[in-house]
Amino acid sequence: MKKGILILLIIGAVFILAVIISGKSAMKWLRAEGYLEYSAQGAVELAHRKCAQCHGIDKTAKYCMRCGPPFIVVVHNMRTLIAKSKDRYGGIEDIKDGEAAAITQVWNALVGNWEDTWRKEDLQKLLENDNALIKLLNTPVKERKIEMALKGKTAAGAETIMKPVK
Ligand code: HEC
Predict the structure, then answer these.
(1) Domain that residue 102 falls in
(2) pLDDT for residue 165
């Protein structure tokens, strides 16, 4: 009899564990696909992880207004680069829709957002068919939760560069 109860307990524990684990990965998937929002801290961690896969984070932290298009375009370009050269960069994680929107907001806030110094039509063209980022482009900064939450903070290494005037 005792053995039976023990087995039931074990089965129960395994079941509960399975629910917790699949719940966690389901949440991760929902965030990555853009159905759930990242917390500001979660987004910062994600940005540092995904953007340090091929080059140092310095490349991003020292990127500046004079260096090229705003981060929304850079993130799009990096997504495209990953997709195009999956073979060359074996084992690289791609950047999903929800991740791209969250990561863009992180670098906009920590390094700088100069989207408004570019014509919207040009940015739209540069974003090609990246609907997740086009949607972000059309979202006023005030309504971008992650970007607003992180505003005023600075990425390590970005202190030395000139920030766009706000
Ligand atoms: C697949 C590897 C890879 C990943 C992942 C990656 N990059 Fe890059 N990145 C590159 C390469 C290669 C270049 C240089 C070629 C170029 O400029 O297109 C580059 C260049 C850059 C530049 C300089 C671009 C310029 O116009 O001067 C910035 C800024 C940058 N990456 C930021 C990021 C950010 C932000 C992320 C995360 C969203 C990221 N990178 C993820 C490979 C990668």
Answers:
(1) 38-150
(2) 38
- What whole-number distance in Å separates Cα of residue 66 and Cα of residue 56? 20
Based on the domain organization, do 21 and 56 belong to the same domain?
no
Q: Cα(144) to centroid of ligand 1, in Å?
A: 23
Ligand 1, atom 12: closest residue by C-alpha = 54
Residue to mutate (ligand 1; options 65, 75, 81, 95; most atoms within 8 A of CB): 81
- Report pLDDT digits (tens) over 119-147: 999 999 999 999 999 999 999 999 999 99
Question: Mean pLDDT of all residues in the chain?
Answer: 90
Q: pTM above 0.90?
A: no
Pocket of ligand 1 (CB under 6 A): 50-51, 53-55, 59-60, 63, 67-68, 74-75, 77-78, 81-82, 89, 92, 95, 103, 107
Q: Say yes or no: 7 and 24 in one domain.
A: yes
Residues 109 and 130 occupy one common structural domain:
yes
Q: Are 42 and 28 in the same domain?
A: no
Give the dihedral of Cα atoms 135, 158, 151, 36; nearest 10 deg.
Answer: 40
Q: Whose CA is nearest to atom 25 of ligand 1?
A: 68
Tokens coding 24: 């966690």
* φ and ψ of 143, to 5 deg: -100, 5
Q: Point out the ligand 1 atom lying closest to the alpha carbon of residue 53.
A: 5
Question: DSSP character for 159?
Answer: T
* Tens digits of residue pLDDT in 56-93: 999 999 999 999 999 999 999 999 999 888 778 778 88
Please check whether residues 26 and 43 belong to one and the same domain.
no
